[in-house]
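(Deposited chain)
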Amino acid sequence: MTATDPALTALAQGWCALSLLHGRIEAHIERALQAGHDLSVREYSLLDVLSRQHDGEGGHLQMKQVADAVVLSQSATTRLVTRLEDRGLLARYLCPTDRRGIYTNVTEAGLKLLAEARPTNDTALREALDTAARSPELAPLVRVVESLPAPP
């Protein structure tokens, strides 16, 4: 294959379209969450991921798992956790079975803010997808996103 190979060109164009769709959706949600709730997309995602933890086997996430879930490095995730902890939205505590482990839980204030922000996030996502669906190069990607099954 050469750099001018049509298959590579199509692949690169598809990747650019996917990147464009992601960027537009994230920017739209970011504006809505900032305006309505003083939250960034990353902060919202972190609160959402941590709110889904539960007691019991495999219920609490390690920082690496949290970082993977919010698509940030571990150091950036730690800084984000610290910012939300400083706002009273998260609390850290030692793992009861391994004193070296530190868990992070969403506080009542964090759960309240998340519940208030969820409709804003969902509405902004729907708006961004509807707008993107009107673009010929993005419409096929929107259809794929809309056809994905909900996670269990």
The chain has a mean pLDDT of 90. The two ends are 40 Å apart (CA to CA). The chain is about 65% helix and 5% strand.
